[in-house]
Amino acid sequence: MKNFDFHAPTNTLFGKDQIQQLPKVLNQYGKTVLLAYGGGSIKRSGLYDKIYELIGEETTIVELSGIEPNPRLDTVIKGVKLCKEHQVDVILAVGGGSTIDCSKAVAAGVFHEGNPWDFITDKAVTIEKALPIVTILTIAATGSEMNGGAVITNEETKEKLGFHSRLVIPKVSILDPTYTFSVPTYQTMAGSADIFSHLIENYFNQTPDTMVQDGIAEGLMRTVLYYTPTALKEPTNYEARANLMWASSLALNGLTGNGKFGVWSCHPMEHELSAYYDITHGIGLAILTPRWMEHVLNDDTVERFALYGHRVFDLEVNDDLYITAKEAIKLTYDTFVDWGVPMTLPEVGIDESLLEEMAEQAVHHSNISTKAYVPLSVEDVLKIYTNSLVPMIF
Amino acid sequence: MKNFDFHAPTNTLFGKDQIQQLPKVLNQYGKTVLLAYGGGSIKRSGLYDKIYELIGEETTIVELSGIEPNPRLDTVIKGVKLCKEHQVDVILAVGGGSTIDCSKAVAAGVFHEGNPWDFITDKAVTIEKALPIVTILTIAATGSEMNGGAVITNEETKEKLGFHSRLVIPKVSILDPTYTFSVPTYQTMAGSADIFSHLIENYFNQTPDTMVQDGIAEGLMRTVLYYTPTALKEPTNYEARANLMWASSLALNGLTGNGKFGVWSCHPMEHELSAYYDITHGIGLAILTPRWMEHVLNDDTVERFALYGHRVFDLEVNDDLYITAKEAIKLTYDTFVDWGVPMTLPEVGIDESLLEEMAEQAVHHSNISTKAYVPLSVEDVLKIYTNSLVPMIF
């Protein structure tokens, strides 16, 4: 285990009707609120009206709406402008990862002279201060509700890049599983794939002796596998939605990744897909993950894949570890197929034309060629992309 | 899953030499520090000198030493007096659960008019303010380094009682596994038994659909089982000590217990043993746990015990769940025996003379007779105590 610095200070108010605490929560920070959200789903669900009912009278609400599924830099800049104009005290991010990520960039952007893209692209530019963020989560997916990470897309440069700061970790997150009842099938499975991928990325790592982190990841993976089919079949099943929601927060708040070195593999590859084609992040991850697994399976990694099969899919470990490992990879693929995920790139509108360019960018924008679980060259990434053009055969 | 409010804001600085950050950490809170510790072990290990070397020049250090293994109310009162006299800004608790628990009571006691026993015994007396606490952990056991709970013993009334407040959650905890290298065998196994018991207490619970919490608990239980024998055989094995240390914090910071109703079973029973006989808490828990398991195994609980056997001990689940459940209970007992725990009450100096009185007190001081996993009457507790007089036979 490597040294680490763990800090997940978000106060999570979990469960039905926790929104009743919203006035008290926001009051700690001030009376002018930036209400950040995406499209009309929070209006259709009644959440938007509920917020106004609870805080509308005593609070000045400024709205930043229309935040994109892959939030854009120009929306961040618009939010920063609003916060400065109206002297906003606190950001209330209502939505999923996109809305929360955008809010984080706004929160930090308010105190940054110049373009927020600076602190996203330049590690030398440090975030010194940020507005407090409170979130109301409406989809279980990114875990952004309990960490300091955010990913922003620059449409001009076609770049989709992340930044991280402890100052933008949400102060309070209201996690009411009933708000995810109306999440459509496609987004539910994309969300589950995203949670699962965060766990996979942290689990397949070369650092030895991280049994605490791995045991937590295994438990959360089993949870996602167990409850996703129920959530897809019965969207209003509270227990399924609750377990998926809580798993989303814990999958990426440091618990499963702290104390490990190296960088992730599938996320950098997927970020190019959604930067170029604006596809749903979780779907891109689901498509890439089993191909990546197949590509990196070798004598060094087979033991971990067999353990994954044993702990997560309850497989008996065969004397020939490759048998268990391959079965685990097949089950991973089959899981996504069973959920209904479109499991090839053409099904999400991606053909072979830009694969090479994206492979180059994936390696250029990350350290996967040197620090991934199994280092991936441009050729490796291209192979994984190419293998994603057609269904897998086992 | 029940509604819950999760908040584990402790910033954990984990790993070798993290103590170098101590000056910066303490500086946030002020220049007068109450250094709280137990006996001479931190002097023998060099930790005491290291602290003075790092902060001795710039900081005024007031010492509260001699904190007992089961910290006493009069020591708390002494600490409060010191803090008031010297206008202490921050408490640096160096040690294990006893030192940290005592520090929590001192931290809150400073701002409480009257005897600290008030807020420990009377739920109506709320803690309004507390001094900030920074900890340097020297034994993996109670998890006190990352939560707001504390247990204090009143020698006069023979009561050992807990209190809880978010205001006394440590701000920063330095977790350097090398500080646990010198923990003696007896305390190492007692610590592991304590961690294991926290997980057991949360795991055996009637609330349905808590797979997230249970998956985490299962992973942490496997970690304790896997690394404790190594830590006992090779006390300076960093990886074993690291995993046990991190497991201790996560076992009791809310992750495995939040979202569940009811109260614990073995802790209330053990608290009487250590209140009356001053035995080591973890050892008392190890003795009681398998007897409690045997006592509460029935048609309602057998499925959970079988799952426990499957997930934690890798048992195949038999069609007759009782077979798996009983094997799991046996393995739990055998585990403690293998560690070297004295597994009967007489071995720790407890005979039958006060069992009835303690059984009455255990029920009197807790809600185990109504809200435990399987409610336990005075007769039940007495049975479990009595069964603990002799070795278990399977």
The CATH topology of the largest domain in chain A is given as: Dehydroquinate synthase-like, alpha domain
Give the total of domains of chain A: 2
The side-by-side strand order for the widest beta sheet of chain A comes to 1-8-5-4-2-3
* Structural class label of chain A: alpha/beta
Account of the 3D structure:
The structure is a homodimer of 394-residue chains. The first copy, chain A, has helices spanning 22-27, 41-44, 47-55, 73-86, 97-109, 117-121, 185-203, 211-233, 238-251, 266-277, 281-296, 302-313, 321-339, 355-364, 368-371, 378-387, and strands at residues 4-14, 32-36, 60-64, 90-95, 133-137, 149-154, 159-164, 172-175. In chain A, the strands form 2 sheets. A 6-stranded parallel β-sheet of chain A has the order 1-8-5-4-2-3. Chain A contains 16 helices and 8 strands. Chain A has 2 domains: 11-179, Rossmann fold (3-Layer(aba) Sandwich); 185-387, Dehydroquinate synthase-like - alpha domain (Dehydroquinate synthase-like, alpha domain), CATH 1.20.1090. By secondary structure, chain A is an alpha/beta fold. In chain A, helix 4 crosses helix 5 (97-109), helix 11 packs antiparallel against helix 13 and helix 11 packs across helix 16. Chain A starts with a strand and ends in a 7-residue tail after the last helix. Helix content of chain A is 48%, strand content 12%. The interface between A and B is large, with 42 and 42 residues.
